[in-house]
Write a structure and sequence with these properties.
By secondary structure, this protein is α/β, with parallel strands linked by helices. 37% of the residues lie in helices and 17% in strands. The chain is built from 21 helices and 26 strands. An 8-stranded parallel β-barrel has the order 1-2-5-11-12-13-14-18. It has a 6-stranded antiparallel beta sheet with strand order 19-20-21-26-23-24. A hairpin with a 6-residue loop joins strand 19 and strand 20. Helix 1 runs antiparallel to helix 12, helix 2 runs parallel beside helix 11 and helix 14 runs antiparallel to helix 15. The chain is globular. It starts with a helix and ends with a strand. The structure holds alpha-D-glucopyranose. The site of alpha-D-glucopyranose has 10 residues, from loops.
C-alpha cells in the first residue's frame, strides 16, 4: 500500500467522526459548512506538506507499531534546554547521556518563542511558528529532532493552547481594535460579567496573580487571564480560534514533534455558572484534535496536562470503551501527590483507596507517572472529592505542607510552600526530589544513616513509578539528586517559587567526594531500574494495574498481569521493617514462588515476605 491508499483509508475512518464532533461544537453557526470545508482543506494541505520520513512513520505507527508509546521501553525525561545543556545544539550533544539512562522520550520545555521578560517559564507564547531565541532557531530544532529520531527518542513539546501571551500577534491586533481578533479572547467592558464568572472560579496563583481577569488599560476592558495578567485566555467558542490552533499543531507535527503536551487542558471551554473546568465541550475539543491528528499525523501522540481531581483525570483519555478517544497519554497527578502524602505519613491506605476508586484506563492509553516536574506538587487533588473515603482534610494538607516545609519534628524534607493565599489556604509545595526526599538535609547534617534512608526513599519511589503502568518521567537533575536552587528569587520580582526546583545541571566537577559518590549511586540506580523495566514485557501499559490489599498500612502493592504471567510490586513506605502475611498472597491467588527481579532472590510466599525500610520489590513468577 502506498501513502495515498493509507490516507484515503484514514479519511474514510475519520471524516465523519471529525465532522460530527465539529458540528456538535460549532454546527449552530451560520457559516459552519463553509468553515468545515476549510478545516478539511487545511488538513489535506498539511498531509501534502508532511515530510516523507514522517509519512513513513505514520504508516508504521498505524500498522505494526501501534503500541509504541505503551511499551516497557518507554522512559521519559523532561528539561529546560538551557538548564540542561545551554541550547538545542547542547541538548543534541547530550543524546548519549540520555541514551545511557534508557530515555526514549524527551520533553523540552519552553521551546516556542515566549514573550520577553516574565513568561511563566515559557508558558506565555508570543509566536508558535518560531523558537525560543535563547535555545536556537527552527533549523536548530529540526537538526535536534533528526538526531533524536536517529537515536529513537521521540520529541515532546508543550502546546500552550488555552492562552497566548499578550504580545502574540492576535492579541496585538485585538488591542489595535481589529474586531476579528478581539473575538479571539474574552474582553468585558465592565467588571460585572467577570464578577459573575468569578463566583465559581478557583485561582491558580492566588498569591502572585490573584483573580481570573485583568483590567487592560490599552483595551479599556477586562480580559480573561486564568494564569498571569500577560497570559490571555483564548475563546474557543470562536471557531477561528480552533482553526488557528489546529494549523499550529499541524505545522509543528510536520517539524517532527511526536508528542504534544496539551498545556492547561482542563480550562479550554468556559461557561457562566460553572467552574470552567473539565467541561463537556473541552472534551469534545480534545476528541476533535485527536481525530484530526489520527488523520493528518497518526505518528503523533497527545498528552493531557490536566491537573485536576482524581475522578476527572482519566476522562482525558477518552471514554472507558474507547469509542471517543481523547489523549493517548495523561499525567497521573493524583498518584504523584498521593505518593508524597504516603512518604510523609508512612501510610498508604488513602493512596490505595484513591487509585482503586478510579475508572479503568481505556485500552491503548497510558499514564505519565512522575514524582516531580517544573511545577509545584498541587495538594488540591487529594481533597477534591470530599465524599471519598480517601479524601484528605484541610488539616491533613496543613500537616503535609508543614512536613514538606521541614517544620514538623519528624520531617526530613526541605521544601517551600507555593501560593499561600491565607492562613489555611495554599496551593502546593515546591522543591526537588532529592530535597523533598531528605537527601539535602541528610548530607548537610552529615548523617550516614539518614543519607541511606534518603537514597532508599528515592529508589522506592522510582521503582514504584517505573512499574505502576505508564511512562515513567524523570525530571532534569533528579537522576543525580540535584538540590533546591535557593538563588532563584534574587532577581525575580514575581518570586515564582517554582524556580526553586528548576536548578541548572552541574558541570562534572563536584568537589565534595561524598556528594559525588551519591550522585553516581543515584544515577546508576535509575539506570538499572530503567534497564529492568525494559526487560519486563508485563509492564506494557495495556496490562492492567490491580491494587491489592497488602494487609499492612505501610505497604503499597499492586500487580501487573498479562498473558505471560504476573508481576507484583510491594513498596514499603515506612522507616521500619514490614512483614506481609502469607494469607495476602493466597487471597489474591498469587503463585507461591516468586523471584525478586533486582536481587534475583527467590521467595516462598507461604513464608510471608519481609520488606526492609523504604524497600520496593518487583516479584515475578
Ligand atoms: C501549566 C504549566 C505551568 C503553567 C501553566 C500556565 O500548568 O505546567 O507551568 O504555569 O500551565 O500555562
Amino acid at each position: 500500500m502506498n501513502n495515498l491508499d493509507n490516507i484515503s483509508l484514514r479519511m474514510k475512518k475519520y471524516e465523519d467522526i471529525i465532522s460530527d464532533t465539529l458540528r456538535d461544537l460549532y454546527g449552530h453557526l451560520p457559516e459552519f459548512e463553509k468553515w468545515r470545508a476549510e478545516i478539511f482543506r487545511i488538513i489535506l494541505t498539511s498531509i501534502a506538506q508532511r515530510p516523507q520520513h514522517l509519512l513513513d512513520l505514520d504508516i508504521l505507527r498505524e500498522t505494526t507499531d501501534r503500541d509504541w508509546y505503551l511499551k516497557p521501553d518507554m522512559v521519559a525525561y523532561m528539561c529546560y534546554p538551557d538548564r540542561f545543556a545551554e541550547n538545542f545544539r547542547g541538548v543534541e550533544k547530550k543524546i548519549p547521556y540520555l541514551k545511557s539512562l534508557g530515555i526514549t522520550y524527551l520533553h523540552l520545555l519552553s521551546v516556542l518563542r515566549p514573550r520577553e521578560g516574565h513568561n511563566d517559564g515559557g508558558f506565555a507564547v508570543a509566536d508558535y511558528y518560531s523558537t525560543n531565541p535563547k535555545y536556537g532557531t527552527m533549523d536548530d530544532l529540526t537538526h535536534l529532532t533528526d538526531a533524536l529520531t536517529e537515536n529513537k527518542i521521540s520529541l515532546c513539546i508543550d502546546f500552550v493552547f488555552n492562552h497566548t501571551a499578550r504580545e502574540h500577534d492576535w492579541a496585538q491586533k485585538a488591542l489595535a481594535g481589529d474586531p476579528y481578533y478581539q473575538d479571539f479572547y474574552y474582553f468585558f467592558e465592565t467588571e460585572e460579567e467577570p464578577k459573575e464568572y468569578e463566583k465559581n472560579l478557583s485561582q491558580v496563583f492566588p498569591e502572585t496573580a490573584p483573580g481570573n481577569f485583568t483590567y487592560c488599560d490599552d483595551a479599556k476592558s477586562w480580559v480573561w487571564t486564568t494564569f498571569h495578567p500577560y497570559q490571555w485566555d483564548l475563546n474557543y467558542k470562536n471557531p477561528n480560534v480552533f482553526m488557528e490552533m489546529l494549523k499550529t499543531m499541524l505545522f509543528l507535527a510536520n517539524q517532527g514533534i511526536e508528542i504534544f503536551r496539551l498545556d492547561a487542558t482542563a480550562y479550554l471551554w468556559k461557561e457562566k455558572g460553572t467552574n470552567c473546568l473539565n467541561l463537556p465541550e473541552t472534551h469534545k475539543l480534545l476528541q476533535v484534535f485527536r481525530g484530526i491528528m489520527s488523520l493528518a499525523a497518526p505518528a503523533v501522540c497527545l498528552k493531557a496536562e490536566a491537573i485536576v481531581g482524581a475522578r476527572y483525570i482519566s476522562k482525558y483519555l477518552g471514554d472507558p470503551a474507547g469509542e471517543k478517544p481523547e489523549c493517548q497519554l495523561s499525567y497521573h497527578n493524583a498518584l504523584m501527590a498521593a505518593l508524597w502524602m504516603s512518604l510523609a505519613t508512612g501510610d498508604v491506605y488513602r493512596m490505595a483507596m484513591m487509585i482503586k476508586s478510579l475508572p479503568p484506563r481505556p485500552q491503548g492509553t497510558s499514564w505519565i507517572t512522575y514524582l516531580r516536574c517544573h511545577d509545584d506538587i498541587g495538594w488540591g487533588v487529594l481533597t477534591d472529592d470530599r465524599q471519598a473515603s480517601w479524601a484528605a482534610s484541610k488539616e491533613d494538607l496543613q500537616e503535609l505542607n508543614d512536613f514538606y516545609e521541614g517544620k514538623s519534628e519528624k520531617s526530613f524534607a526541605r521544601g517551600r510552600i507555593f501560593q499561600k493565599s491565607g492562613q489555611n489556604s495554599f496551593h502546593g509545595t515546591n522543591g526537588t526530589l532529592a530535597s523533598l526526599a531528605g537527601l539535602e538535609k541528610a548530607i548537610e547534617e552529615g548523617r550516614d544513616t539518614d543519607i541511606r534512608k534518603a537514597v532508599a526513599r528515592i529508589t522506592l519511589l522510582y521503582r514504584l513509578i517505573f512499574s505502576f503502568g505508564g511512562i515513567p518521567l524523570l525530571y532534569m537533575g533528579e537522576e543525580v539528586g540535584l538540590f533546591n536552587d535557593y538563588t532563584y528569587d534574587k532577581d525575580d520580582p514575581l518570586r515564582d517559587g517554582r524556580w526553586l526546583h528548576r536548578p541548572r545541571m552541574p558541570k562534572n566537577d563536584e568537589k565534595d567526594e561524598k556528594l559525588k559518590e551519591i550522585r553516581l549511586e543515584l544515577f546508576s540506580a535509575v539506570q538499572s531500574i530503567a534497564q529492568q523495566r525494559q526487560q519486563q514485557p508485563l509492564l506494557h501499559a495495556d496490562n492492567p494495574t490491580n491494587i491489592i490489599d497488602s494487609g499492612n498500612r505501610h505497604v503499597f502493592s499492586f500487580t501487573r498481569q498479562g498473558d505471560k504471567g504476573i508481576l507484583l510490586t510491594l513498596a514499603n513506605f515506612s522507616s521500619e521493617r514490614q512483614r506481609i502475611e502469607p494469607d495476602v498472597f493466597v487471597l489474591n491467588a498469587l503463585p507461591e514462588r516468586l523471584v525478586e527481579q533486582f536481587s534475583h532472590t527467590g521467595h516462598n510466599l507461604a513464608e510471608g515476605i519481609i520488606l526492609e525500610p523504604y524497600h520496593c520489590m518487583w516479584l515475578k513468577a
